[in-house]
Amino acid sequence: MNRRVLLWISVIALALFVYKGVIRTALLPVVTLPDLPGGISFTTLLVMVFSLTHSMVALGWRHSLVFFGSSAVISWMYEQVGVATGAIYGPYHYTDYLGMKLGHVPLLIPIAWFMMIYPSYVAANLIVDGRVVGTPGSGGHLVGLAFLGALVMTAWDLLADPILSGPTIRAWVWEQGGPYYGVPLQNYLGWVATTFVVFLLYRAVERRWKPRPAGPLSGAAGAMPVGAYLAMLLSNLSSGALPAAIAAIGPLAMGVPVVASLLRLPIDRGAAAGTRPTPLH
């Protein structure tokens, strides 16, 4: 698919999410703006479409599909084992809130993993190497990037899990509760482990076979995944379903990667291809 078409699809998908998940929600106490159809499944799909189309531009379609496929398969396997045994994230089970399941896991869940794994991957690249894509350097550097990306990804769950497993939504239920607003601390170790494996596998592939991007990214286009990560933070903060203390925890946990990423964003060169940036329009 044409690079410009993919970029515009990613722009539109992210803009729709920002409207529905951030702007409309934040303004509800003042004015009720027209809503878009669909609930959490629709907003999840919007961010997934953004991540998939943007990655196709930045990484090329082959690497993008490898990234998406490995993320979906690994996250589903970990979740399936986690629900069945309680050994990874702690004892929990999904309700019917998220729809159709494959085994014990809603089909929406592997998609939800990728929608934030890709922005977390970009954030880790920017923080460490000042580039949007790629895994340069030694094997140790690869492991470090994978681990940082896992921490950036897990920071999001500090907000997401108390909302989605809380009394308002109850998309899943922690059978024994936990000290962090009902969430067991083991859950976050499981998130780091799951995401680390995804990043480790994909980065090993990326290091062996270099990405073939659809073209260079301008500074603005390269910053879009970080913008998606920030939009998810703002959406969670404006949801009205967060315990008060997390409204302070969230901006710190997710805000640090956002600021650190943007400070390292390449401005005068193509972040994906190492060439001069090409405007979005």
The percentage helix is 55-70%
Care to count the β-strands? 4
Query: Counting H and I runs of at least 4 residues, what is the number of helices?
Result: 8
Strand order of the largest sheet: 1-4
Structural class: mainly alpha
Sketch the topology as an H/E string, one letter per element.
HHHEEEHHEHHH
Morphology call: globular
**Head-to-tail CA distance between termini:** 16 Å
- As residue ranges, the low-confidence spans are 269-281
Beta content comes to: under 5%
* Rg over alpha carbons: 18 Å
Q: Specify the biggest β-sheet.
A: 2 strands, antiparallel
Domain tally? 1
**How confident is the prediction overall: mean pLDDT?**
90
Descriptive report:
The structure is a single chain. The protein has 281 residues and is mainly alpha-helical. It has one domain (3-263). Helices cover 64% and strands 4% of the residues. It has eight helices and four strands. The strands form two sheets. Strands 1-4 form a two-stranded antiparallel sheet. Strands 2-3 form a two-stranded antiparallel sheet. A hairpin with a 2-residue loop joins β2 and β3 (105-106). α2 packs across α4, α3 runs antiparallel to α6 and α4 (108-129) crosses α8. 47% of the residues are buried. Residues 269-281 have low confidence and may be disordered.
